[in-house]
Amino acid sequence: MGAEEFKIFCGNANRPLAQEIVDYLGVPLGAAKIQRFGDGEISLAVDESVRGSDIYVVQPTCNPTNDNIMELLIIIDAMRRASARRITAVIPYYGYARQERKSRAREPITAKLMANLITTAGADRVVTMDLHAPAIQGFFDIPLDHLPGVPILAGYFAEKGLENLCVVSPDLGGVTRARNLAERIGATLAIIDKRRPEPNVSEIMNVIGELKGKTVVMIDDIIDTAGTITQGALALVERGAKEVYACCTHPVLSGPAIERLKNSVIRELVVTNTIPIENMIPRIRVLSVAQLLGDAIVRIHENLSVSKLFS
User: Fold this and answer.
1) So what's the pLDDT on residue 295?
2) What's the number of CA atoms in the CB half-sphere (13 Å) around residue 100?
3) What is the pTM of this model?
4) Collapsed DSSP state (helix, strand, coil) of residue 54
5) Distance (Å, rounded) from C-alpha 257 to C-alpha 226?
6) The pLDDT value given to residue 3
7) Residue 165: helix, strand or coil by DSSP?
8) Quick check: helix, strand or coil at residue 187?
9) The dihedral formed by the CA atoms of 248, 176, 61 and 58, expressed in degrees to the nearest 10
10) Beta strand 188-198 with 42-46: parallel, antiparallel or unpaired?
């Protein structure tokens, strides 16, 4: 595949993932420098022509979220003003996805604001993975390709050859994802029924399903402070689970997450590299999404079905 067919650029959010994608596709990473002025404003210099090119901008909007969002918007704007033919924002992790509805009066719907900003900046298409709320796809008036992380996670657990498996959803909202994983690895299904009195605080209420003697795999889309997953794992062991693995697509891992994981009963946490992990510990295993995103880019460029990648 010739480098002239399309060009891939990235911001500073996850350069190693962008490099993996271009290495897989056999194309160079686009020449662009992102720096900061003294007052913190972002400076972008694109050092090659993009006129008439299909451009793919790889930039998860993870921590530092607002800086990474601005980098994404500025790169898109620069490409549009430089006469790129088509601009696709490849956002492996979509920040603000947990603010997708009004749960009380006078709250913003920031996930929708994000969609408006990306579209207004000049993106023609968006590629993302495991949106916290799938309905966010409808916030965009441009095409959006929504890639699942479950097939990658399922492939890893299938290769481990674990027996007597039960997949557990840490809440009622994640049952569809958990059922998908369970079907792919031949496991039973259980659900933790919990309530959350305030953000980042959860309380285990009940476990629905048979756990005694089972090897358990807990799955979520995001692990943030790791309170839900570590409390849940302890509750499962107390209810007879033999051992507990955990997995997610997006390892946000903020605040006390790493310490909680170190002190937890979780044997292994399996995640993807949609977000770079700053503080690695031995029990975290990282799987790459570079091939999936690379294949999606090629299929979009060639006007082929993206859903064929995971159907």
Assistant:
1) 98
2) 15
3) 0.94
4) strand
5) 5
6) 43
7) strand
8) coil
9) 90
10) unpaired
Of 4, 5, 2, nearest to 303 (Cα)? 5
Sign of CA dihedral 230, 236, 237, 239: positive
pLDDT along the chain (311 residues), means of 10: 74 98 97 96 97 97 98 98 97 97 96 98 98 96 97 97 95 93 97 74 77 96 95 93 98 97 98 96 97 98 93 72
Catalytic center residues? 194
pLDDT the model gives residue 177:
96
Phi, psi of 136 (to 5 degrees): -60, -25
Please name which of 79, 176, 75, 88 lies closest in space to residue 135, comparing C-alpha atoms: 176
Structure tokens given for 232:
């849940």
The tokens for 118 are 């990306």
Tokens representing residue 212 in the block: 């005694």
Query: What's the distance, CA 118 to chain centroid?
Result: 17
DSSP state of 29: B
pLDDT for the residue numbered 1: 42
The DSSP letter of residue 105 is: T
